[in-house]
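One thing: could you explain this record?
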Amino acid sequence: MSKRKVRMGIDVGGTHTKAVAIDNDTFEIIGKVQVLTTHDCEQGVAAGVVECFKKCLEENGIAPEDVIFLAHSTTQATNALLEGDVARVGILVTGGRGISELLAKSQTKLGNLPLVTGRYIETISDYIEREKLTEETAREAVRKMKDKGSEIIVASETYGVDDGGGEAIIAAAAEKEGMKVTKASEISKLYGLTTRTRTAAVNASILPKMLDTADSTERSVKEAGISSPLMIMRGDGGVMSIEEMRKRPILSMMSGPTASVVGALMYLRASVGIYFEVGGTSTNIGVIKNGRPTIRHAELAGYRTYVNSLDVRVLGVAGGSMVRADHGQIVDVGPRSAHIAGLPYSAFADENDIVEPELYFVAPKKGDPGDYCAIRCKNGKSYTITNTCAANVLGLVSPEFYAYGNQKAAKKAMKPLADYLGVSVEEAARQILETACAKLIPVVEELIAEYKLDSDQAVLVGCGGGAAALIPFMGEKMKIKYKIPENADVISSIGVALAMVRDTVERVIPNPTEADIVAIRREAVESVIKLGAAPESIETVVEIDNQKQRVSVSAMGSTEVKTTDMMKAVDEAEAREIAEESFGHKGSKIELAGKTDSMYVFTQERPEKTLFGKKKITSAIRVLDQKGFVKLQTAKGTAINSVIGSLDSDFKKLFDELSTYKGDVTICPDLFIVVGGRIIEVSGVSSIEQGMGIINAEINGMPANEKAVMIGIQQAV
């Protein structure tokens, strides 16, 4: 009989593929392994995924039958698009005639879709009037596209969001002609024929490549004796079944970069901050605010798609980035890394090997600039100088961190570069980190401004093996608090292992009613249940964007009933101590403003000067869960106690009180309802009715006397 249940997550990075095994009941890390990412293997990075999970089983004594959850991130979709390894796409459109036909043809004639590397996705388009669309006319059109070189078909209908009958006819006809099909309305339910068709075309272009990878990976997993389904990380931070990936591989775009943010969210119980995953080749930067990662529609070569993705910025500078120098100056750091050049870091060398080091220059890959720095020693061994080497020279890396190396070896190797630059070894190291962080700091400043983070929210959290190489230097330079948590080197793999099944349903609905919100929420819940989520574990988030007339519901749930948290609950006194530390010294009186069975709400009085110099007292707010993690924080807000049965009247009262007016425009407040162990967010609404629609959809069936705390935040005029 199996003694334990194990969740395994595998993250594919630019340098390493890492696996982590986690006990499902305690969150304890049972084991972690890594292999070099198999970029050049015939099976691509999938070979490394298979090698990594087999190694994790063997080295940690995990029986295949113990694995109840197995998921991996994938760079396959992103790489296919970057490298132009895509199929030719035939777009077959149906709709009305006359002006409707002219508009539809112009909106779906995409031509060659450019990719970021200068390559493109080839598309050809054809159109059939809906009245003339039959299986035979569709098959004839598909055959013509096939003759012109199309390898896969996109079925797109003018009003396919409302009635996808035409797309279904085209799909059935294409399949009878032996062609794989992507239906545009299955990729997105949003209006916007051009964007919907373009998103479907991108999905179709990578489908053949992704199917090959999915089949080989799944086959290897089954051969290893693992019966639990293989899950794939999505770009929005959730996971999907391999069956779903076979239909919508585009959802896996950016799944690698998002894994670190999910790890911070799930494992560190992070509620707010700027999160870095610093690997050997690249750094991923994302924001978590109010306990949720920030999400946006992904872009491809400047074109918007309807694919939801965590807003993660990827930069080509990391712990292993090599130094470039010319004419006695550092000209850049990265984007090539030591791994790509096939050279070891000098910081990890034996000090005795660094004898009579000489500086020379290399081009890591054919076509690269030939000004990347390397060191050749008397014994013939060569090394390179990286950000990790520079951080070790300056003593910024503590022994507990993955990036900790041999400071003496790093200094000896740095000396020839310092001489070339005409500065001390320490100054050369500083210049290297200054150059690297000059790429990261503007992105951090942009995220702080874009997501309106308060100054006390701007905490830098460094994860990934290279975190200690960059984050301490950057935190000190920006004068922002920073931390590098335990197991930071494998936070992405942890994120994959703990990710939940997720799906988002979006609709364009002007002035949505409560019935509209309830219907979309139900659809999102049913979708994640179908994808494998346990019904009792599902939570939803409703968002309304009145400017774009869009309603979005994200549902997420575990494949098993939620895991047991090994951490004991905190009492009120312990929660107060945590809140006091979070508040800092910006105010004075701290009070418990309210609590539910699983959450504490604390306020801190803060003096604020008005326009005429008078003092005004405002309240900062922190919401903590029963484990002591801050789940919501704001520098200014109002908190009132309520119960489920009184939410209607209390919500209307607080909504009216905090609404502001500018001419004929009403600026509605953001409100949060703390109930049980969760927080219902009501933001972006334009009326009390919309707000109550969100609340009623979430509290349906709850006892009328259950405690709730309402938090309101007035928006600036």
Q: What stands out?
A: The mean pLDDT is 86. The first strand starts at residue 6 and ends at 12. The two ends are 63 Å apart (CA to CA).
